[in-house]
Design goal:
Layout: H1 9-17, H2 22-35, E1 38-39, H3 40-47, H4 58-65, E2 69-73, E3 88-92, H5 97-102, H6 108-115, H7 127-143, E4 148-150, H8 157-161, E5 179-182, E6 188-194, H9 199-214, H10 217-220, E7 222-228, H11 242-254, H12 265-268, E8 269-273, H13 274-277, H14 286-289, E9 292-298, E10 305-310, H15 327-331, H16 354-357
Parallel strand pairs: 6-7, 7-8
Antiparallel strand pairs: 1-3, 2-3, 4-5, 5-6, 8-9, 9-10
Helix pairs in contact: 1-4, 2-3, 2-6, 9-11
Amino acid sequence: MNSRYLMDEAEAMRLLTINQGRRERLAAWGALDSWRTVSAEQLAAITGSRLFLNPESSNIAASVSLELMDVGAYSSPLAVGGTLDRNCLYRPSNTDAFDKLIAPELTWPEWISVTGGYPWSGGGQYDRHNLLSTELALRAAEYLPIGAVMGEKFSTVDLLAGTGLGKKVKNPDNRRADGTIIRTDGLRIAYELTGTASKSLENKVRRWAQLISERPLETSGLTVLFITAPHPDRPRNRSGDPRDEIYRRVSSVLKEFPGTRADSPAARIGIVAWDEWFPARHELSEAFFSLSADFALNNVHGNGKWVKRDLLGDYAFTPWNTFDATAVVDQAPLLSATPHWMRSGDRTELIGSPMDRAGETAPVPGPVKPELSRGRVFGKGVGKAGDAKLPPRLRL
């Protein structure tokens, strides 16, 4: 570990528990927990704080010193331009530091904002894969008229098709998409990035297809999008671009689930190439602004024809009357992993005050002796003083 990131443990704990920079710090931890691996620039974009462009900033150095997070670098930093520090990578460490050192210092609303109420996520990483997943979500959040973006942690099969809908999934295990784009009407576009054509890809497509066949669109809002993103340095196969083989394998699996109606896997599982949306650095194609992708709607007889559909424009979705499809859009701003411009404002009413959460009928207790209140409403401001409010650490 680079010594420039290390500091005394006591000093690190002090820096991570003071109020200064607390909001940005919580946002950074939430982003790591949800998106798994992010670049310094991505973390700055999500949190809205330029401090995270510098890995030697106190929040980063203290987090690294306590083994809460790791700092890395691209294999060839000069290849991506800019300075070494600006292009460093951050990811959560595979330790219990968050549960032991950080969680006990957080209020319940703060803990909810970072973790969403689920255990902190350490574990294995696929850095390039995670960076692209995060980048796609950031670009969608910045340029598209959508309701929310969710990271890998909140894109599990269980949340998309099980307990998130008040239902049970058979053998949900730990399957999850790489991220989810949610339209303003609640349609979920769970996306998977893939760089190679393999048997594991076929199995993944088959599992999603099976799940979709069991979850009507009107009661789940679930669609799945595979995004081909081969590594630029990986040799191509004999047939040319590996994306051709990826298309072929996806097509082959979808033939096992015949039908092209709105609820069919063929109508709800799309595929698109990364460079079809992002043809070059700092460029976005017209196809990205409508999330245009290929669907195997003319492929049921094996003729290999794909149909272009715009997931934002011409993809209809009418939720069933008992399915509150937009609840996730309302609640996403509670998560600090949500890009900062999508979580502005006060959302405390969604979780209530401490008294609300305790089951009390009144939000605050009344005075013990009403005759001493002199007719004033408890908590109401007097003179130039404003009304009593919850302290920042109890608000979201």
